[in-house]
Design a protein that fits this description.
This protein is an alpha+beta fold.
């Protein structure tokens, strides 16, 4: 019993345990107060059961949850604050959610309205998309893992069995981790290649249960439940809830498709579908809809006079019901009515054909151009599925847009799998299904070489990838998941272009420094701007202090690591960091050498000024003195050595005098 205990240490943060919230097979959860940096916040403390401390598998799962939560920073995912051990027992401190899980809400209320469920589902889609973008599949979505705060905010919790697609699974092949009632068919079959679409199936199960109060399937044994998920179709939710808008029914059944390929593309797509349904329903609601859909006994006096045919029709559409046909006696049907009916049917058929007619390439391509960056890949793919075989100028442009977006997607995937450190302990080295082992080895070796500043080696590895991966076949674009690996060729071609641009980028920075010295203008700029850092490093190199320049390059290397938009700056930093790396064993000598360098530069500037200050024909001398003084002031303002501080102060005085010329 840990209640009343204090964990951690005052320097990094202390956690005082206030009360026990619950316990299970894996451990106990407590509520506590974390005090760090003078601030106090409530936390949920998850402590491993003492009986599992020696269980290697259980410890790996516990470590896995903390490792996964460290990668996730999202308002709808419970946040990790820290990890540690108390008397040898591991624990993780997480965000404390003041609220209750959805399973408890469901027990209390029996079922929820579809609008409320949609509100929670949109938040959950945002959380899932964030996790999926990091290569993380939750694998255990269910109401008990969805916390709702007192203000109505959803928080996704419990990543204890989440699968990081970029890490070798802890479970063996054909394992079935998860809660049976919410598991996808591929989970039930024990598939090793789960995708993010497995979570989408579970999302469909959760929405089904929240809206109807019932799960899609019931079974007496886990194996029977598995078989139902794999083989049986659930009862359509619209049959259980006749008043439900038909689009809600369609969306949930779309999520519950047996094959991952026929489910929505990703969580972001599901959110857009939800928002589309909300807009449709809102658009069909007229001022008199509530009256039109109300029971007669519930209507207020005078309501019957306000109900219009349009209101009744809107209510019918929202509910997804068919319009009741009037039974017309045969003797009342005339040939005039028959002809009129025929014309109406012809008009309806014409309208249907018009609605089903494929969208023109121009109009479809306009949607591609208008799509936000995060949606261009999918939008361009949809365009090419429909119009890729057409001889139209927009097709080539759409292919170029898709290629750029797909290349960026693959690059991000590779970087996530590579980790964010040179000594990343977790790295997928084995070939996954659809990947060539030799190609993947060269990709990892290329990334490692880039990070080590061995750009020539990186080029050689990327050339191998380019030469051994065939050009992607756009006719296979209908299956984006299987299309994922072949564009490694596109990535290789792009990286070779980026590597080839590094020498030019370095020359560009050198020219910028030369221009600044000629014009005596060094703009301050944003200190976090990669170019500003590169300029500082080059100035140090030119000043004759490669060791200090190495520190700046090292900082730029760390800041741009795994930041795809800054890739070329990262490659330049890696290259120059390797070129300027000092001998660590001579650290004391380097400090002394730097002090002497600064003093020597200041002496030379003073001597140059002594001969130039009164010589009106000397144009370059004063400028050289001013530039040297600016270098001393700008580049060594962060030094702690007293001798260097004195030199910087003297440089400021000399600059003031030299600026008068």
């Amino acid at each position: 019993m840990l209640v009343g205990q204090t964990l951690g240490n005052p320097a990094k943060g202390e956690i005082y345990i206030e009360k026990e919230l619950g316990s299970g097979a894996m451990g106990t959860v407590y509520r506590g107060r974390l005090t760090a940096n003078g601030k106090t916040r409530p936390v949920a403390l998850k402590v491993v059961s003492l009986g599992l401390v020696g269980n290697e598998s259980a410890m790996k799962r516990f470590d896995r949850e903390s490792a996964i939560l460290q990668q996730l920073r999202h308002p709808h995912i419970v946040r990790l604050y820290g990890t540690g051990r108390f008397r040898g027992t591991p624990y993780i401190a997480m965000e404390y959610v003041d609220g209750e899980p959805l399973d408890r809400v469901l027990t209390r209320r029996t079922r929820l309205g579809w609008e409320e469920v949609f509100t929670y589902a949109k938040q959950l889609c945002d959380a899932l998309q964030h996790a999926h973008d990091k290569g993380i599949i939750h694998r255990d979505l269910k109401p008990s893992n969805l916390m709702i705060t007192t203000s109505g905010v959803l928080k996704l919790t419990d990543f204890g069995i989440a699968k990081d697609t970029d890490v070798t699974a802890l479970t063996g092949a054909n394992s079935t981790i998860g809660t049976a009632a919410y598991m996808s068919p591929e989970q039930c079959r024990g598939s090793r290649d789960l995708s993010a679409k497995s979570d989408l199936y579970s999302l469909g199960v959760v929405m089904y249960e929240l809206i109807t109060g019932k799960k899609p399937f019931y079974a007496e044994t886990t194996m029977d439940m598995f078989l139902k998920h794999v083989n049986e179709k659930p009862v359509r939710i619209g049959r259980l809830m006749p008043d439900l808008p038909v689009w809600v029914d369609n969306l949930i059944m779309h999520l519950l498709e047996k094959s991952p390929d026929t489910r929505p593309y990703d969580a972001a797509t599901v959110k857009r579908m939800i928002e589309g349904i909300e807009e449709k329903v809102q658009g069909l609601r007229s001022a008199g809809l509530d009256v039109a859909t109300a029971r007669k006994v519930d209507r207020k006096p005078g309501d019957s006079e306000t109900v219009t045919n349009e209101d009744r029709e809107a209510a019918r559409i929202i509910k997804g019901k068919r319009k009741k046909k009037k039974t017309v006696p045969l003797l009342q049907q005339t040939w005039v009515k028959a002809i009129g009916l025929g014309l109406v049917l012809a008009g309806l058929i014409g309208a249907g054909v018009w609605l089903m007619w494929p969208e023109s390439p121009e109009r479809a391509f306009a949607a591609v151009k208008a799509a936000p960056e995060e949606g261009k890949r999918e939008t361009a793919a949809n365009f090419l599925k429909q119009h890729g075989g057409a001889s139209h100028p927009t097709v080539d442009e759409a292919k170029a847009i898709f290629r750029t977006a797909q290349t960026r997607y693959i690059e991000n995937t590779l970087l996530n799998r590579a980790g964010k450190g040179e000594d990343a302990k977790v790295r997928v080295r084995a070939a996954q299904e659809g990947e060539n082992e030799a190609v993947m080895k060269n990709i990892w070796d290329a990334i490692d070489s880039e990070r080590a500043g061995k750009l020539a080696d990186a080029k050689r590895h990327w050339q191998f990838v380019r030469d051994n991966v065939p050009e992607p076949d756009f006719t296979q674009i209908h299956d984006l998941d299987n299309f994922r690996y072949s564009p490694n060729r596109w990535v290789a071609e792009k990286r070779l272009t980026d590597l080839g641009a590094v020498p030019g980028l370095y020359r560009q920075v050198q020219m910028k420094v030369d221009d600044a010295r000629t014009n005596e203008e060094f703009p301050a700029g944003n200190p976090s701007d990669p170019e500003v850092k590169a300029v500082r490093a080059v100035r140090l190199e030119l000043f004759g202090d490669p060791a200090k320049a190495n520190g700046v390059w090292d900082g730029l290397h760390a800041d741009t690591l795994a930041e795809l938009p800054q890739l070329r700056w990262f490659l330049l930093a890696a290259d120059r960091r390797a070129a300027t790396r000092p001998d660590k064993e001579k650290a004391t000598e380097l400090t002394a050498a730097r002090t002497e360098l600064v003093r020597a530069k200041l002496r030379a500037a003073g001597e140059r000024w002594a001969t130039a200050k009164d010589d009106k024909t000397d144009r370059t001398g004063p400028r050289e003195v001013r530039n040297t003084c600016r270098d001393l002031i700008d580049l060594y303002d962060d030094e702690k050595d007293d001798a260097i501080k004195t030199a910087v102060a003297d440089a400021k005085k000399l600059l003031t005098e030299a600026e008068k010329r």
